[in-house]
Description:
The structure is a homodimer.
Chain A: E1 6-14, H1 31-43, E2 50-51, E3 60-70, H2 79-84, E4 91-99, E5 111-119, E6 133-134, H3 141-148, E7 153-156, E8 171-182, E9 185-192, H4 199-211, H5 219-226, E10 241-247, H6 250-253
Parallel strand pairs in A: 3-10, 5-6
Antiparallel strand pairs in A: 1-3, 1-4, 2-3, 5-9, 5-10, 7-8, 8-9
Amino acid sequence: xxxxxxxxxxxxxxxxxxxxxxxxxxxxxxxxxxxxxxxxxxxxxxxxxxxxxxxxxxxxxxxxxxxxxxxxxxxxxxxxxxxxxxxxxxxxxxxxxxxxxxxxxxxxxxxxxxxxxxxxxxxxxxxxxxxxxxxxxxxxxxxxxxxxxxxxxxxxxxxxxxxxxxxxxxxxxxxxxxxxxxxxxxxxxxxxxxxxxxxxxxxxxxxxxxxxxxxxxxxxxxxxxxxxxxxxxxxxxxxxxxxxxxxxxxxxxxxxxxxx
Amino acid sequence: xxxxxxxxxxxxxxxxxxxxxxxxxxxxxxxxxxxxxxxxxxxxxxxxxxxxxxxxxxxxxxxxxxxxxxxxxxxxxxxxxxxxxxxxxxxxxxxxxxxxxxxxxxxxxxxxxxxxxxxxxxxxxxxxxxxxxxxxxxxxxxxxxxxxxxxxxxxxxxxxxxxxxxxxxxxxxxxxxxxxxxxxxxxxxxxxxxxxxxxxxxxxxxxxxxxxxxxxxxxxxxxxxxxxxxxxxxxxxxxxxxxxxxxxxxxxxxxxxxxx
Lengths: 260, 260
């Protein structure tokens, strides 16, 4: 009798420093690859995972999500403990859930939160060098915080997309955006329904320029109005970016009663 | 004419993960060695630095201090920028000061602050794995905070010293001690006039045991009263410890007017 395959959703955290990014690539080690190899060791046979977000090389995650199908009898909540004994220390599985077969890690996403960390000090950080971007000139975080609010809501973010994206529409909704300082660390937090390729790093790069007066705060509104990428700053470097959380509609995570 | 040698005091930050500790050793690379090598490249000739604290392998620093003597004409405040172009990214010089010849980085210290970071979560941290100790069982940080207050003030800390120390007396003064939680991170902050070998890590290890009920809060008082190391928990691992600040008496840093 063939075993029936079930769908699992994992929450994954990683330090992206030593990876070519989330997605499998020929030119180096990806987080997807080390996760699939650990799953294959644990479950036997080939396993394919699908991630919510294809984070770039150097980008980190506290709450990436990925789904996989398996006929394993290991309870979902035991998967993190078993996998973490096999994974390298810079990749940790934090949660395992049984979910309906209809839940797709990427297509079912209802919202994501990113954080961008800037080490704002004359000298780079020895301790957080891989977890932040270094900006030596003093940033005015209140100016950045005020300026970024114009991005709240639903807009055409065409100007905020790097070449190489494949989105059919460039309209997105930002539900939360703010800039805060803790000592020498400046944090940008952005939540939205979905993001264009490099969108958060382009917002971060532009806010850095606004924060030290290189660009006027109105640049963001002008970019929304015109769709002109040249209104904005450079794409901020990857190591400052962390995928904090991926959300799904409550109902899409609920198993039918007879499968619980 | 021989140039007159002047004394400089540097503030140094480092990620201790890839070093055998602060002090030069035959069995591997120390922070002292990479700093001396950068100074020799910059200033020419052999340079010897003396650190305030001989931090162990894996221990980090945000505000280590070290003095050196040189006849260089480079202004003290330019030294960090010049040295940081030569140092590896996990060692940064944050400040350079001209100080009187009588200032000794170690013997003139009036106070130090350490922080111990605990990642308190069922799974280890992928991002902060080298900057924190992992404690999977839930810690009661208020219990830890209340218990640690008994260490405030001047006491004989004989029970809190690891073998291998060379202190003539084990009496020390703690001027500040507290435990706080931010999400899954628990921080112990300790300031004092001086510390015995491994003293902060023994305090941290004991507070962890108190925080999950393995040791009663009274263990700390009992250890002070009896000098008995066995009243206390294990020495917490090095990677959670960061030397935050080293302080000197104001007057010992002031240059005579004709040398300014």
